[in-house]
Amino acid sequence: MDHGTMLHLVKFTHVSMVILSYLLFWTRGLWMIRDPARLQRRWVRTVPHVIDTLLLASGITLAVLIHQYPLVDGWLTAKLIGLIAYIGLGLVALRLGRRRTTRIAAWIAAQGVFFYIVAVAVSRNPLPFSALL
Ligand code: HEM
Predict the structure, then answer these.
(1) Domain containing 15: what range?
(2) What CA–CA distance (Å, rounded) separates 128 from 120?
(3) Which of 4, 35, 37, 38 is most buried, most CB within 10 Å of its CB?
């Protein structure tokens, strides 16, 4: 397989996992608010981990394919820091937050971080909204 085809395939996988990851996070947040028992079902506890692992693995593969790396290229550093913040806020929202308001606030903040990461990815700029300032 040539490099271009490979890049397209991995990028398609990456973006598909981005969409699935977001939809699952959004759905789990609604369940957390309305019907937390649903979060305990086996598939709900396992499938998101599989998708998020594929998301990370495809991201790392893309970085290798285009020779751009976190801690070297600013936009990938920003994505990585964003990803860590997204994971942390997600943990607070779905598992660690004690009060309902804390969990809901973390869930909303995580979505802000998520869209920041998407904006960084598309613009390849750690300050994707700087053109608006
Ligand atoms: C929540 C986490 C992530 C989200 C929402 C996300 C989102 C995206 C999106 C939407 C694109 C497509 C950009 C475009 O085609 O214009 C993309 C591309 C890419 N992502 Fe991610 N990503 C995430 C995590 C990561 C991670 C952890 C890495 C690497 C360590 C990574 C590395 C890349 C690379 C190298 C590209 C290719 C950019 C290009 O070829 O233009 N991503 N990402």
Answers:
(1) 3-132
(2) 5
(3) 38
Q: pLDDT truncated to tens, each residue of the chain (133 aa)?
A: 899 999 999 999 999 999 999 999 999 999 999 999 999 999 999 999 999 999 999 999 999 999 999 999 999 999 999 999 999 999 999 999 999 999 999 999 999 999 999 999 999 999 999 877 7
Beta carbons within 8 Å of 78's beta carbon, 6+ residues apart: 120, 126
Residue 3 tokens read as 């490099």
Our mutation pick for probing the ligand 1 site, out of 19, 54, 62, 113, counting the most ligand atoms within 8 A of Cβ, is 62
Domain count, the chain: 1
Query: Taking CB atoms and a 6 Å cutoff, what residues make up the pocket around ligand 1?
Result: 14-15, 18, 55-56, 59-60, 62-63, 66, 68, 70, 76, 79-80, 83, 86, 114, 117-118, 121-122
Token pair listed for 50? 């599989």
